[in-house]
Design a protein that fits this description.
Elements: E1 4-9, H1 11-28, E2 34-40, H2 44-53, E3 58-68, E4 74-82, E5 92-100, H3 104-114, E6 120-128, E7 141-145, E8 151-152, E9 168-172
Parallel strand pairs: 2-3, 2-5, 5-6, 6-7
Antiparallel strand pairs: 1-9, 3-4, 8-9
Helix pairs in contact: 1-2
The structure holds inosinic acid and magnesium ion.
């Protein structure tokens, strides 16, 4: 059944904000190389767009973790589905996420990555739902704060659909 999706953040606004974030990140990492880690699958659209506009040397790796099943409610379980290909020891790591909701996934992931001894570890998210935060984590770069609604598009899914929408939409469930 098709859900009703309303536009929350337009394609143009998303593109413009990601460009701004890339400028800021390029400034902050001047003279260094960024090792971006995309959290699959949701972070992939954001990381590709962000990395295209970053002006410092950049390498990319991918990781898949899950805390949600095919549901809009967190199961509370975090699992590594796919680990990184490369070591992050000594690297300036930037984790690129689609959305920080309760913060459960990221608080777990950041601790796990910190144990692998990166030179630095920062977090960049396209969207943040601060009202839903239950785990204390530091978000270094945020694209947009969104209200507590279920959002899709630009990598975010509802039951694995809508990731390919070029804008951020709200699902009317
Ligand atoms: P957290 O661990 O509660 O912060 O949830 C993080 C993950 O839940 C995100 O990386 C998303 O994959 C998923 N998620 C949370 N809120 C939404 C939403 O509104 N739409 C789609 N996925 C969401
Ligand atoms: Mg995610």
């Amino acid at each position: 059944m098709a859900e009703k999706i309303s536009v929350l953040i337009s394609e143009e606004a998303v593109a413009e904000r990601i460009h701004e974030m890339a400028v800021q990140i390029s400034r902050d990492y001047e003279g260094r190389q960024i090792h971006m880690i995309c959290v699959l699958k949701g972070g992939v659209f954001f990381m590709t767009e962000l990395s295209k506009h970053v002006e410092v040397p950049c390498s990319l790796d991918f990781m898949a973790v899950s805390s949600y099943g095919d549901s809009t409610v967190s199961s509370g379980i975090v699992k590594i589905q796919k680990d990184l290909d490369e070591s992050i020891e000594g690297k300036d790591v930037l984790v690129v996420e689609d959305i920080v909701d309760s913060g459960r996934t990221l608080s777990w992931l950041l601790k796990a990555l910190q144990q692998r001894k990166p030179n630095s570890l920062k977090l960049c998210t396209l969207l943040d739902k601060p009202d839903r935060r239950r785990f204390d984590i530091t978000v270094d770069y945020t694209g947009f704060e969104v209200p507590d609604v279920f959002v899709v598009g630009y990598g975010l899914d509802y039951q694995q659909r809508y990731r390919n929408l070029p804008y951020i939409g709200a699902v009317e469930i």
